[in-house]
Design goal:
Belongs to the glycosyl hydrolase 13 family. GlgB subfamily. One of its GO terms (biological process) is glycogen biosynthetic process. The protein is α/β, with parallel strands linked by helices and about 675 residues long. Among the domains are: about 120 residues, Immunoglobulin-like; about 170 residues, Golgi alpha-mannosidase II (Immunoglobulin-like). The protein is built from 15 helices and 29 strands. Strand 27 and strand 28 form a beta hairpin. Helix 4 runs parallel beside helix 5, helix 7 packs parallel to helix 9 and helix 13 runs parallel beside helix 14. The protein is elongated, with a radius of gyration of 28 Å.
């Protein structure tokens, strides 16, 4: 015991809050902290293991002997073991030797460790999150960037497979090497935010980071905590927000992780009906345990505080909220009211949102939630869960089902694109085309599209235009911006060589122009979450597979019209407009610069006939399988001519030519 000195960072108030479940900055107390005691430098350790018989610190410094550096149990029955060990420094490897009441010695990583090793042993490292930030301009102004009245176009990415070295395809780029390449790319493409799939430490690459062992550690695959901070800092300095995937839903059963931490079911439910996830073979947090709630909310605070994250996308919320998620009858236990809602998880998520928004009011929390759970993005004081946004999974499924359908049969699926408008303003929605849609045999987005090469690319451009002009924030998974042909493979870099082909380069340019249009035109985002920002002009023309709607900003004359022609025909189409307005085409997805067929979207006539319940009309030439965006302008003393719209031939010869310009990869 002489090798460990009594020392504590905890106050009585800390212990009270921890045991009550409302201490949200536990990372300032738990873990390994460099301190000086009586003029001697060393490290203070503390860990929660209330059912342990003995807890020691083991590592290279004591040849991994569990009896050399035994920690002191606190007198207050909090279950915390702590103590000071002199001579240790940053970079030293350690674990906790936890002797259970059954006299079994467990070797556990530190739940609050700031770094972990990358090997089978996977020990924790004495580390620090000290960093000299210089992103003050971004941080002071990010409230506007994260506002619901601001454009949000998110680039979702997996750091290990976004880009790798050309000399060694198996080599990861470091956080700093990624920064060198990612920052100019995001600036060029016009995305407002990036979203990193989990950067917390995880042992198993095929989990993509969603099975975490080191909840407070930036994965050392790509460098140190400071290297990740450098990446985030550089993004901020270039006016790019950073969202992090956060996984409070489950954790793996690795021997050195949270599972059975002190010889008991400490962080997880003991009852497998609540504590074991049948799909992922992982363990579910006990949200009703106050100390576990403090751990999780402290973890959220940590990434917002120490890493300057601008928001958290909370993974697998549906599985958290539903006791019967992925379970058959008899495999789950109803709540006290006989329902299937996990009341403890619901309360945890409410407390989480209240806590993080109180501390960081300028961040955003986003729920990945696929059910119709009510009031997810409504304030907690109104009975809601308190998220800032929710992924619109129903929109994603309906949209992909529609676009997968052959154009000749789309009239039978017409309502798949109109149904979303019935509920789009019930929550604050984000439109996701995420990693989940391009794995496990689902095919890449480009290969979900029907038809030959020309039709596939035309369809995908139209889909993206529909997404960017639909109410709600946007999210696009990496590689989709240039129509990656293979399914996403987490073991390899994206197929950047595809940009040598005009169809892929054209897709990239189209997404770039969409992003910049979205950020420029206030009508596309100011009323993203209000019915005032959207109006159908034509929602029922299933025979022609034509959709027409308006997007509106806060100013009365800030109006855009979106026209989708989702068949491979070129024809003139009569559209009702308000009197005294004229329209300019500002985007045409069929332009040759996007590898389209080059059919010009032009207003070929104007009429004074009442049409579509509007006093006047325009006749617009519709390119094939294309989206056209027009901007309204006021035009006094306008001359109106009366004409008749005529349908023209189907797919133009120019489209056929364009399809032959390149060969599929």
């Amino acid at each position: 015991m002489d090798n460990v000195l009594p020392y504590s960072l905890f106050t009585e108030h800390d212990i009270y809050l921890f045991r009550e479940g409302s201490h949200y900055k536990l990372y300032e107390k738990f873990g390994a902290h460099s301190v000086t005691v009586n003029g001697v430098e060393g490290v203070y350790f503390s860990v929660w293991a209330p059912h342990a018989k003995q807890v020691s610190v083991i590592g290279d410094f004591n040849q991994w002997h569990s009896e050399t550096h035994v920690l002191f149990p606190r007198w207050d029955e909090s279950g915390i073991w702590e103590g000071f060990i002199s001579g240790l420094k940053w970079g030293d490897v350690y674990k906790y030797g936890i002797r259970t009441n059954k006299d079994v010695l467990l070797e556990k990583g530190d739940p609050f460790a700031l770094s972990w090793e990358q090997n089978l042993q996977a020990g924790s490292l004495v580390s620090t999150t000290w960093f000299e930030w210089n992103d003050g301009d971004w941080m002071s102004g990010r409230a506007k960037k994260n506002s619901l009245q601001a454009p949000m176009a998110v680039y979702e990415m997996h750091l290990a497979s976004w880009m790798r070295g050309t000399d060694d395809p198996t080599k990861f780029f470091s956080y700093r090497e990624i920064a060198e390449r990612l920052v100019p790319y995001i600036k060029e493409m016009g995305f407002t935010h990036v979203e990193f799939m989990p950067v917390m430490e995880y042992p198993y690459d095929p989990s993509w980071g969603y099975q975490i062992t080191g909840f407070f550690a930036a994965t050392s695959r790509f460098g140190s905590p400071q290297d990740l901070m450098f990446l985030i800092n550089e993004l901020h300095r270039n006016d790019i927000g950073v969202l992090l995937d956060w996984v409070p839903s489950h954790f793996p059963g690795d021997a050195n992780g949270l599972h059975f931490f002190d010889g008991t079911f400490l962080y997880e439910h003991e009852d497998p009906r609540k504590g074991f996830h049948p799909d992922w073979k992982s363990y579910i947090f006990n949200y009703g345990r106050p100390e576990v709630k403090s751990f999780l909310i402290s973890n959220a605070m940590f990434w917002l505080d120490r890493y300057h994250a601008d928001g958290l996308r909370v993974d697998a919320v549906t599985s958290m909220l539903h006791l019967d998620y992925s379970r058959n009858e008899g495999e789950w236990e109803p709540n006290i009211y006989g329902g299937n809602v996990n009341l403890e998880a619901k309360k945890f998520l409410q407390d989480f949102n209240v806590a993080v928004y109180k501390e960081f009011p300028d961040i955003i929390t986003i729920a990945e939630e696929s059910s119709d759970f009510p009031l997810l993005t409504k304030p907690v004081y109104d009975g809601g869960i308190g998220f800032g946004m929710k992924w619109m999974m129903g929109w994603m499924h309906d949209t992909l089902k529609y676009f997968k359908t052959d154009p000749q049969a789309r009239k039978l699926e017409h309502n798949k694109l109109t149904f979303g408008s019935m509920y789009v303003f019930n929550e604050n929605y984000m439109m996701p085309l995420s990693h989940d849609e391009v794995v496990h045999g689902k095919a890449s987005l480009i290969y979900k599209m029907p038809g030959d090469e020309w039709q596939k690319f035309a369809n995908l451009r139209a889909l993206y235009a529909y997404m960017y002009t639909h109410p709600g924030a946007k999210l696009l998974f990496m590689g989709n911006e240039f129509a990656q042909t293979h399914e996403w493979d987490f073991t390899k870099s994206l197929d950047w060589h595809l940009l040598e082909y005009p169809v892929h380069a054209g897709m990239k340019k189209f997404v770039k122009d969409l992003n910049h249009l979205y950020r420029k035109e206030t009508g596309l985002y100011e009323n993203n979450f209000s019915p005032d920002g959207f109006e159908w002009v034509e929602a029922n023309d299933d025979n022609n597979s034509v959709f027409i709607y308006l997007r509106k900003g806060k100013q009365a004359d800030d109006v855009l019209m979106v026209v989708l022609n989702l068949t491979p025909r070129v024809f003139d189409y009569k559209i009702g407009v308000n009197e005294g307005t004229n329209w300019d085409v500002i985007l045409n997805s069929d332009e040759e610069k996007y590898a389209g067929s080059g059919v010009e979207a032009e207003i070929v006539d104007e009429e004074d006939d009442e049409w579509m319940y509007r006093p006047n009309a325009i006749v617009l030439k519709l390119p094939p399988l294309a989206a056209v965006v027009l901007k309204q302008k006021r035009a006094p003393n306008k001359v109106i001519r009366k004409t008749v719209a005529k349908e023209k031939s189907a797919r133009p010869k120019t489209a056929s030519k364009s399809a032959d310009k390149t060969k599929p990869v």
